[in-house]
Amino acid sequence: MCGCGRHGCWETVVGLSALLRAAADPGDPVHDHGRDLETRLAELAARADAGDRRTLDALTQVGTALGTGAAVLINVFNPQVVLLGGYFAVLGRFLTEPMAAELRARVFGPDLAGARIVLSTLGFTAAVLGGAHVALEAVFDDPTLVPVAGDDGVSPAIGS
Ligand SMILES: [Zn+2]
């Protein structure tokens, strides 16, 4: 069951909840939403680096499922790049190998049909930065579009 109410969504096997469920028992500190996510992910990475079998198996399981779904996307859309963001980028060094193995088995063309798997370097703020960029793109393209302060001395807000 997925958080969206349907069954069998990709998120149910690659989402953060799926990883945490596979990697640690319910009382484990990595499940504690009171701790920040970066800290919890760093803890998982440390366990994986230390060779903890359960953590490594969980990461392999998620990486494989990531490859299964990404193979469909590559076969349908033939992208040049598949960019992994969010927690995938943070734990990417553990996910890309099982993901690539699955992609090699499932993508129709040779060499992943030309697609490269890339890890985002923007961390968890990538979506916000992208949204801000889209909102400001017109201003960067033509700064004269920004209205100047009116006679009332009040600066109009961008986009107003
Ligand atoms: Zn869903």
TrEMBL record:
Q: State one Pfam family annotation.
A: ROK
Against Gene3D superfamilies, the record matches this protein to: 3.30.420.40
- InterPro entries (alphabetical): ATPase_NBD, ROK
**Coiled-coil regions listed in the entry:** none
Signal sequence coordinates: none
Q: PANTHER family given for it?
A: BIFUNCTIONAL UDP-N-ACETYLGLUCOSAMINE 2-EPIMERASE_N-ACETYLMANNOSAMINE KINASE, ROK (REPRESSOR, ORF, KINASE) FAMILY
Recorded family membership? Belongs to the ROK (NagC/XylR) family.
Q: What is this protein called?
A: ROK family protein
Highest classification ranks of the organism: Bacteria, Bacillati, Actinomycetota, Actinomycetes, Geodermatophilales
